[in-house]
Design brief:
- This protein is about 25% helix and about 25% strand.
- The chain has about 250 residues and is α/β, with parallel strands linked by helices.
- It has one domain: Vaccinia Virus protein VP39 (Rossmann fold).
- Strands 3, 4, 5, 6, 7, 8, 9, 10 and 11 form a 9-stranded mixed beta sheet that branches. It has a two-stranded antiparallel sheet with strand order 1-2.
- Helix 4 (about 100-110) links the parallel strand 4 (about 95-100) and strand 5.
- The N and C termini lie far apart (about 40 Å).
Length: about 250
């Protein structure tokens, strides 16, 4: 399909509302359009959508082609932009997108629906499924959950995996930054990262970093393990040099 830039003001206005859910900012777009617009006021929304999708794309190389149906969970899917793109990238798949925001699920079903996608209005903490997933995407969500609940949600997601399934996580590498009162209320900072690595050392099968300043280029992945979160790619220690490793990129198994 030859996609066009999204210039429909009515749709863009709906996306703007979806981008600001409560005190949270979320990337929103429609998968049938290019992640571009000619309307200046909305160009940042397109930019955020592309950045977010590139984080998803960073995990696609581990997706295996299988002769059996593939089950995928897009946790906290928003309006389903990335869910729809995943459905186009992963063949033979059934993808579930869940979100606790009613307007997001409404827009997902309106604009980003597909035959192999099921959207559900549901709180991830209280959700239940009758089967396990081959792949779970949990991108840019952990920082929006209070730190005392991090292990609860990670453990739940790991338990939703098939024996050979993978959980994909991205979240900001904030080192010593304090939690915000809204939005980023549970950062994976220096202390929590150390504890996270210790708790899940047997579950982490691969880790690296995203460079948020390069998410529109081809070299935005910094291929270094999670244990190097305090160091730059040139090996210089300390917080002053670390911001290029702006986001963790983590793959986990049961």
């Amino acid at each position: 399909m030859n996609k066009q830039n999204l210039n429909d003001i009515t749709i863009l206005s709906e996306l703007k509302i979806a981008c600001y859910t409560g005190n949270d900012v979320r990337a929103s777009w429609i998968a049938d359009y290019n992640m571009e617009t000619d309307i200046i006021e909305y160009k940042n929304y397109a930019k955020w959508a592309l950045q977010h999708w590139n984080m998803y794309k960073g995990f696609l190389n581990i997706i295996e082609k299988k002769n059996k149906p593939i089950y995928v969970l897009d946790a906290a899917c928003g309006i389903g932009h990335n869910t729809k793109l995943l459905s186009e990238e992963i063949s033979n798949s059934t993808i579930y997108g869940i979100d606790m925001d009613e307007n997001s699920i409404k827009l997902a079903n309106k604009y980003n629906k597909s035959e192999n996608i099921v959207y559900k209005l549901e709180d991830l903490f209280n959700s239940s499924f009758d089967y396990k997933f081959d792949y779970i995407f949990f991108l840019e969500i952990l920082e929006h959950i209070k730190s005392e609940n991090h292990y609860t949600i990670i453990d739940k997601l790991l338990n939703l995996l098939n024996d050979d399934g993978y959980l994909f996580i991205s979240t900001p590498n904030e080192l010593d930054n304090p939690d915000a009162l809204s939005e980023h209320i549970g950062l994976l900072n220096r202390k929590r990262t150390s504890q996270f690595i210790d708790r899940y050392k047997n579950n982490i099968v691969y880790s690296s970093f995203y460079d948020n300043t390069k998410l529109h280029t081809n070299d935005y992945i910094i291929d270094e393990p999670i244990e190097t979160y305090e160091y730059t790619s040139s090996g210089i220690g300390g917080i002053e040099g670390a911001p290029n490793k702006s986001h963790f990129k983590i793959i986990m198994k049961k």
